[in-house]
Amino acid sequence: MDDRWWQRAVVYQIYPRSFMDTDGDGIGDLPGILARLDYLAWLGVDVLWLCPIYPSPNDDNGYDISDYCAIMAEFGTMADFDRLLAEAHRRGMRVILDLVINHTSDEHPWFRESRNSRDNPKRDWYIWRDGRDGRPPNNWESIFRGPAWDYDATTEQWYLHLFTRRQPDLDWENAAMRAAIHAMMRWWLDKGVDGFRIDAITHIRKAPGLPDMPNPQGLAQVAAYPYHMNVAGILDYIDELARETLAGRDAMTVGEANGIGPDDAEEWVGTTRRRLSMILQFEHWHLWSDHPQAARDVLALKRILGRWQRALHGRGWNALYLENHDLPRVVSRWGDPQRHPRESATALATMYFLMEGTPFIYQGQELGLANAEFANLDEFRDRFAHNRIAEMRASGLSEDAILDEMRRTGRDTARGPMPWDDGPQGGFTTGTPWLAAHQDYRSANVARQQADPDSVLQHYRALIALRRREPVLIHGRYTALAARSTRIYAYTRGEGDERIAVVCNLSSRPATFRHTGFALAAEGLLLVNRPVALHGPRHALRLAPWEARVYRVAAE
Length: 556
Hints:
The chain is an alpha/beta fold and about 550 residues long.
């Protein structure tokens, strides 16, 4: 197995709009990120993933890009970005950019040219089709709800948009368009960025002929789309992209990969394939997005994550994550924010952080933030939320039922301002923030948790330090323990005398962990999230609710 810098790294995802505002307009900016680099260095992260910072009309909060090679004015200038990149590098941190190449904004010059006329040279850079008797070309529905086609009266054809109607899909069958994407990526790499997180990458190829398909029901973001997700031939595009942009460069690439399972993963991230560094898989979204807390299924979580660990050991690399900008906070989804907020946040962190792969932290996750609260439906800003609300209203749900659903599943619940201190607006801005300050900012903020040795923040810092100093936590084999337990998530990393055991009670009830073949002793205790009484070697541990322990395994 290769030993690459990104395998030893910890990634911190920044949502620039909500990270830190320095000019008082209520919107985070690049100088704000620069101002907080020392905090990120103190935390110990190695890579900064910046959500889109390009010009955009913000129909999907920056994931609708209107210029790939510039900076959104709200965030600053290219000179600001250059300073941020240089200062991050000076502190030993790398920077990867979020890149959307499945689609652009409808304000991108490419699309403006494309829609001018049917014979425009860039017409075929996007997917245009004739309708069927005044209706769209096929029955596809947008991932963001509603038809996936929009009619253009000027040229009397329909264009495809898998997301919002202002995000027209690029046609990856067009070689000239692909060459332009490759050139743009090389431009950023030549500028010094260290790689990319590539949005919606499994959707870039569509099935020939664009046939009708059974549209998925339920939460569409984690559903199957057989004719525009992981379609046969897509890896030819990935091979070309890797060859034309990444060959000879020491870059990190992370694909957002809906529709990829562990059996397919090696094709995307296998060390012999030289395609992507890792992918963000979606399988555990089903567990965290489709069910309330009462349906927490630890057995299913162990099966899913265990399969990914086994599938890629020695053959590829995992990306490890619990949160991102598309998910509500994990403490609200799977923890116990009322009775055990700190303990559940740290137990969940310990559970995923020490597996084989590169851990990702989404801003605010390291503070154990719960979902931001919303008083009414008008407070939601996300386009997908607006579409979901309209859909639920049309189905006859009451306003109270819709608000309850959105408080639980809405993406805005994790997109609010980062709480830095207990001052006005949590120290995020001197103005009015674009989303309200978190309801807990006076008690859950960076300054307070930095001063508290028992805080969630300090636990994340300890996890990062532990992973850095223990080589077995990088490439050691993952072996599941307590496979039948409905409350305990436990595993070892490594083999023989070089093993570390991770034992987490993911429930609000006490639980007993029993094991054979090795002993866990007090002198081998490396990390805990609750006070632990000293003990001799044991084969059974009684764990309090949401207790997590990490041991160096003692030989029998």
